[in-house]
Amino acid sequence: MLVINKDSPGLWEVLHGMNIKNLRLQSAKVYHAESMLQSLSSFTQLETVIIYIGNGSPNLWKGLCGLDIKSLSLSGFSEWMYVINEE
Q1: What is the pTM of this model?
Q2: 81 part of a folded domain
Q3: Containing domain of residue 13, as a range?
Q4: Domain annotation covers residue 84
């Protein structure tokens, strides 16, 4: 499992296209959303995503949309979270 504790410049560019199956995001905030979105869409083997982020990020949801994730766990959100589309 790849654990990311802090979003930093260049991180998502380095990870882009890697064969990552399990990902845990533990960050107070996502700072490099565009790079993160591009990398998430390149993780074609991604099966499990665990997210612990202090605030909700619309860009994060855009990045997860369309991925073939088998298991998704969300925690740590300080604001209300609404599920608009559940499949």
Answers
A1: 0.74
A2: no
A3: 2-75
A4: no
Collapsed DSSP state (helix, strand, coil) of residue 13: helix
Question: Which residue type does 64 have?
Answer: L
Q: Name, in order, each residue with C-beta under 8 angstroms of 10's C-beta and a sequence gap of 6 or more.
A: none
pLDDT of 36 higher than 60: yes
User: Cβ–Cβ contacts within 10 Å for residue 84, how many?
Assistant: 5
For the chain, report the end-to-end CA distance as a whole number of angstroms: 25
HSE at residue 19, side-chain half, CA atoms within 13 A, is 0
Please give the tally of structural domains in the chain. Answer: 1
Give domain status of residue 85, yes or no.
no
Q: What gap in Å lies between CA 49 and CA 51, rounded to an integer?
A: 6
55-82, pLDDT tens digit by residue? Answer: 656 667 777 777 888 998 877 755 555 5
